[in-house]
What we know:
alpha+beta
Amino acid sequence: MAIADKALQYALGKKGCKYSQADRWKENPDVFDCSSLVYRAYKASGHIISTGSRSDIEVNDPAFTLVWPSTRQEAGQSFCSVDVLKRAGWKPQPGDLVFFNTNTKTTRLNKITHVVMVKDANTLVHARGTAWGVREDALGLYGNKVCAVTRLQKDTEPADTTPVTPAATTPAVNPTLKKGSTGAAVQRMQKLLIGKGQKLPRYGPDGDFGAETDAAVRAFQKAQGLTVDGIVGAKTWATLGV
């Protein structure tokens, strides 16, 4: 059995265990937070992750291939969704690690706040929080908040190590955006809005075109004498400076 499969079986065997950041590294084998579950699962299966102190550091373990984004420096800098990654070619494998931003108020530079382990194409296992403990959930639980995906190299065939490049994360042109849009283009637009003096105080540039972003777009359009429709088309992009 591959190391990743063994790690997954370890994690699944801990379902129902308590979540605690304070006690995650103590001798009690049945208390975890998200990163310690992943670290201890792989350690028990034959691979010691280079650090297990935080999920935003685990993403840098050199033994893991970075499936998305294209460089480790980009991990946590933009967001994507599970569905977009699948359409771009990612085939979730047992033991894959998926990193999320589940706290929009984090002060971390790369915004990664949570790590989970893939069970199958539609399911993850993770230490979710104090109210849930270790459990299974849908792989799409956190929507478009994926920050990175990695896979243990020694368990991977060469054909599976090619990084995926979702079109949504590397747009060749500025797409038309509106409420409900998600992805890197939205995040880029949000940063431009902030640079033009608009405020996104609650969520910031999170890659999600919600009500707050819609209001900021309309305010910007009004201030610039554009049609106030909340749609970021060619004229709004141009006025934003791109």
